[in-house]
Amino acid sequence: MGGDGDSGEQTELVSGSGEEEGIPVNIRCSNGSKFTVRADLGSSVAAFKSVVAKSCEIPADQQRLIYKGRILKDDQTLESY
User: Fold this and answer.
1) What's the CA angle centered on 71, arms 28 and 19, to 5 degrees?
2) Residue 18's pLDDT is what?
3) Is the dihedral of CA 13, 14, 19, 24 positive or negative?
4) What is the C-alpha to C-alpha distance for residues 59 and 2, in angstroms, rounded to an integer?
5) What's the pLDDT at 73?
6) Where is the Ubiquitin-like domain (predicted)?
7) Cα-flanking dihedrals φ and ψ of residue 55, to 5°?
8) Which residues in the chain land under pLDDT 70?
9) Predicted local confidence at residue 32, as pLDDT
């Protein structure tokens, strides 16, 4: 049933509590794929990269996440950005 949206879009959650909360973060990979991840702002960038790796098939240690022109550092929380 041909839809207009991307059939490959996925949503995952990175959170310490396991509850569906957090903010939606839209991700665009270098291979052109797009998906949304719900993220707890208290999560570390390293934990967030692990979730992105599952959907983007790019290992976390090879990712470079950029937000507002700044490269996110693994030891920081998402909230710090």
Assistant:
1) 60
2) 47
3) negative
4) 32
5) 97
6) 23-81
7) -95, -30
8) 1-20
9) 84
CA-to-CA distance for 73 and 70, rounded, in angstroms?
9
Q: Where are the domains positioned within the chain?
A: 11-74
Cα–Cα distance, 13 to 49 (Å, whole number): 12
Strand partners, 38: 13, 24
CA 25 vs CA 8, 34, 35, 78: distances in Å: 16, 11, 8, 11
Select from 36, 25, 35, 28 the least CA-distant residue to 81. 25
Whole-angstrom distance, CA of residue 68 vs CA of residue 71: 9
CATH says 11-74 is which class?
Answer: alpha beta
**Residue position matching structure tokens 């957090």:** 22
Beta strands in the chain (DSSP E): 11-14, 23-28, 34-39, 66-67, 70-71
pLDDT at 57: 81
